[in-house]
Amino acid sequence: MALRRAQCAALGLAWMVLADPLRAQVCSGFASLRERHFRVAVGVASYTSATAIEGSFTAGKAVYATVGSGTTRNGTLDASTFDLRGEVGADVALGPAHRVFVCPAASYSLSHGPDDFLLTGENYRYTGPSVGLGLAAVAVRTRRLEVLVAGGWRTTRLTTARSGWPTVTDDYELWTLEAGLVLDGRITVRPSLSIPKGFVPAGRRDDYAVPFGREDGEISLGISIGISLGGKPAKSSPAQGGPGGPTSSASGLGPWFPQVPHSR
Amino acid sequence: MMTRFTRRAGRLAIAALAVVTGVAGCVDLLGPGRTARPTLASLSLDDYFTNLRDSGLMYVDAVPGDAGFRLKPSQRVPIEITVSSGDREQAGLYRQFCPFTDRGEHFYCFQFVIFMCCGPYPEHVVTTLADRVAAIGGRFDLVSATGWIGGVTLFSPDDVVKHARDAASWPGVEYTELAWPNCVTESGGGGSCPSVAPFLAVPLPVDTGRAIPGDGIVQVRSGDTVVATYYQPSGAVLQARAVVP
Fold first, then answer.
1. Where are the domains of chain A?
2. What are residue A153's phi and psi, to 5 degrees?
3. B84, B124, B157, B161: least CB-packed within 10 angstroms?
4. How many domains does chain B have?
5. CA distance A81 to chain B (A)
6. Which domain holds residue B8?
7. CATH code for position B207
8. Taking the CB of residue A143, how many other CB atoms lie within 10 A of it?
9. Across A8-13, average pLDDT
10. In angstroms, how far is the first alpha carbon of chain A from the final one?
11. For all residues of chain A together, what is the average pLDDT?
C-alpha cells in the first residue's frame, strides 16, 4: 500500500513538473506529422472486462486522416468485435505564440460482432459518427525527446443493431488523457486513459445500446506505439524549442484510443 | 547506430513503464481488494443444485443485505465449509449471475446446459459425457429423466461461456445453452434483471470418503452434517446446514 501511495505521489509530482513550462503545444499524444507526414501505430487498451487492440495508419500535416482497424475481446463472455474506424481532424493554434492548440476531429466507426453472443444466436453491429475536441501541450522538449500531454472529449451517436431486437441509437461521451513520449520525432510511446460517460441506464429494455466492452464511468488504461514515416524533421530552433518550432503541432487528436464503439 | 537506437528505445521504454505503472498503481489504489466482507442477509445451501453424494456437488447461495452491493470481478467473499466427519474447506462466494454489469441479460456464472441429439442418436444420454465435463472442471448438477438434458456446474467461473460453446461440438450433443434465470422485468420480459446482480454463490465438489481438509473437495459420509459459515463484519455468525442422506 505504501508503495502504491508512493507511485501516486510520484505520478502527481511528475504531472505537475511536466505541465510546466509549456514551450510549445501539440494536439496529440503522437509525434507531429508536420515533418513526417505518415504514421503507423498499434495500441492496446484494457477495460474492466475486455481488451482492445488496434492498428492505424495516419497521413496528413496540420489536417490529417486516420484509418484504423482492430478487435475488442471480452474473454469472460467469449465474445469479440471486429472494429473499423476512419477519422479526420486538424490542429488549430490559439494565440500568436502558438502555445495552445485545440483540435476538432470527426470520425466514423463500425464494429462487427459479437456474433452468436452468449450462445443466443444473436449478432450485434455497432455504427456511429463521433465529433470532439482535443487540447494538448508539449510538457518537455529536449533535442531527442518530447513529452506531450493531451486530453480530449468526444461525443458519439452509437447505433446498435441486435438481431431480433429493435435497432436503437444513443449518445455517449468519451474523455481521454494521454501522455506521449516522442523519440527523435519518429517513435512515440503513448500511455493513455479513457472514461466513457452517459451510457443508457442499465435495466432499460434498450440497455444493450452501449459500446462493446465498456462500462459507464470506468477508467481504462491503454498504451500505443507509433512510428512516423516519410520526410525528415527540421533542425531544432532554440528560440522555438525543438523540431519544427511552436507550430510543430501534431496532426491532431491522432488515433484516440479506443475510438471504435464497442458493446458490453 | 543500432546501439544508439537501442539505448534510446530502452530509455523510452523505461519512461513509458514508469508512467504506466504509476497510473496503474493509482488506479489499483482506488480499486477493490481481493476479499469483500459485506453483511449478508442470508446464506443457504441451494436445494435445487446441491447433491450431497459421491461425485455430487454443493451449491452455496448468499444474498447481501445491501441490494446495491456489487462484487468486483477480482473479489471473493470468504466462507468456511465444515463437515461433522472432519472435513473443512475454505471457499469464496462469487457473483451468482454474470456478466459483472447491471445491464443486459444475466446467466448463472457457474453453469450451462447440454441438450443431447435425439433424432438419429437416441442412445445418446448426457451422462456419457461425464468425463468430458470433469475434464473442464465441472460436474452434472441435474440430469433429466430421459438423459436428454444435463445441467453442468463448473467450479470456476472462468471461461464458462467458452466451455459451453465448445461442449456443443461434443459427440452426441445437439446444442448447449447458458443457464438463464427466470426473470421478468418491469418492461415486460427480456432486458436485464438488475435485481439479481448482488446475489452470490459458490459451488463445491462433493465426494464420499475420508476427510481430506483443504483439498477443495467436500468429503462427506451418510448422516454427516455439512455447515457453511460466514463471519459477518459485525462479528455475528451466519450459517447454513444440511444433513447428508
1. 22-247
2. -135, 140
3. B84
4. 3
5. 16
6. 1-31
7. 2.60.40
8. 9
9. 44
10. 32
11. 77
- In Å, the largest CA–CA distance within chain B is 78
Q: Residue with C-alpha cell 504509476?
A: B22
pLDDT for res B161? 96
CA distance linking residue A259 with residue A220, whole number of Å: 13
A contact set with B (CB within 8 A): 1, 3-5, 7-8, 10-11, 14, 48-49, 74-79, 116, 118-119, 144-145, 179, 181, 183-184, 187, 189, 191, 193, 199, 202-205, 207-208, 210, 215, 219, 221, 223, 264
Where do runs of H (alpha helix) occur along B57-213? 130-135, 160-167
Cα separation, B69 vs B32, in Å, equals 13
Q: What pTM did the predictor assign? A: 0.77
* 3-state SS class at B64: strand
Residues B162 and B58 in one domain: no
**What is the pLDDT, as a whole number, of residue B111?**
96
A22-247 has CATH 3.30.450 classification: no
- Say if residue B220 is in the same domain as residue B121: no
Instruction: Choose among B12, B28, B194: nearest Cβ to A181.
Output: B12
Q: Which residue of A has its CA nearest to B6?
A: A183
Question: Which domain CATH number covers B153?
Answer: 3.30.70.330
* Chain B interface residues (partner A, CB cutoff 8 A): 8-9, 12-13, 15-16, 18-29, 73, 98-105, 107, 158-159, 161-162, 164-165, 168, 176-178, 185, 187, 190-192, 194
